[in-house]
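Notes to self after the Tuesday call (sharing in case useful).
The group wants a holo model before anyone commits to mutagenesis around the pocket. I volunteered. Ligand is 6-O-phosphono-beta-D-glucopyranose. Logging inputs and output together so the record is complete.
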Amino acid sequence: MNYKFPENFLWGSAASGPQSEGRIHGDLKGESIWDYWYEEEPEKFFNKVGPEKASQVYTKYKEDIQLMKKTGHNSFRTSIQWSRLIPDGVGAVNPEAVAFYNSYIDELLSNDIEPLINLYHFDMPKSLQEQGGWMSRQTVDAYVRYAKICFELFGDRVKKWFTHNEPIVPVEGGYLYQFHYPNEVNLKKAVQVGFHENLASAQAIKIYHEMELDGEIGIILNLTPSYPRDDSNPEDVKAAAIADAFFNRSFLDPAVKGTFPEELVEIIKELDILPKMEVEDLLTIQENTVDLLGINYYQPRRIKAKETPIADINHPMPDDYFDNYDMPNKKMNPYRGWEIYEKGIYDILTNTRENYGNIKCYISENGMGVEGEERFINKDGQIEDDYRIAFVKDHLRYVHQAIQEGANCIGYHMWTCMDNWSWTNAYKNRYGFIAVNLEQDGQRTIKKSGYWFNEVSEKNGFN
Ligand code: BG6
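Result:
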């Protein structure tokens, strides 16, 4: 079968500033929570590798853009680091950062690669975290100022903006499940953080639209379809719907529809942990929804009705309403510990079509992190990552089917372009089309999947 994609389909990959750029002496970048957390607790990071060098994109971006061309990119998403552009989060703009991002964007454009720019990828400036981070209303104001500065500086050339990447992750990682700084467990705080992120997004969208810059603005969400253990068991189905409300609809509904899911609001009211807000906030969220949606898809969520006792009635958690279901015989990526379920990508696109007004969307991340890829180096020094090619193909077939059925999906981006720093997993699992050799000053080598992707992009599909 021939899988042909719509004209002008976006082919490319995604990265983020904090995971790829690195720092050099004299770049005047301020500290983000990642720089700070690594300084405080380096042992929390795989092999104690921190974000200071990352993949050295800050100095190697021109070379990297040539490699993007060789790997079929007609588009590429990265993020501006707030702590690079405005080192203390609220004060003066760093001229070195402006020069860097200008040159990066211009270089992409002059190589016919459309830059898609995200504003927040988990990287709170440290000085703002000290005042509460997303817990604090002042952070919302500071973020909106930062967003406006970005639109003013780069909005003449960047035509697709995103307010956040995976805003549920700072909620989960920072305030529920302890994998991001400040590493707390507190649902009340988690709710406040999520609310402020939603509000910040809506306020930035409002400003962007007021500026009439002739582009689009959206949000990037990691959607994890929640499948009940047993479709015919109403308790399982209800539990899955609650998990969906907590982890997907908490951002998807306000972003696209301007409202919060009722099931979630009910629970939060019952627990008496409604977030603090000002009178006009809900209207701001209602009136300023996204133009397009980025969808990151890695894994589904398997849910069953709550069977285990609630861990601590004095400290509520989302997991008081469902149990995760360990489905037998599921296909796994053993390195990351994530289930691989290709049809999930189709289910998300279909849900978007049927229940979210078929809003314009694209797959903004999908990918497979594998440890020890050196095992697959052939005699010519190339990593033969056939497993990655199979992974992408299997997902693309489902994207294709969803589009055939009417989904308004305009592109597919892989996570990631070149191997990059995966937060506390550092360089454990490699995701890129392009290998980065940390022992050899970050030397780049295109993997087999990179050449394969180039063919797919050239043919706008595959057989
Ligand atoms: C997404 C993020 O969750 O998945 C990326 O947007 C992240 O920042 C990627 O790196 C892969 O996940 P991880 O945790 O293996 O790096």
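Two things stood out.
The pocket of 6-O-phosphono-beta-D-glucopyranose is lined by residues 16, 19, 165-166, 222, 296, 336, 365, 369, 415, 422-423, 425, 429 (CB under 6 Å).
The radius of gyration is 21 Å.
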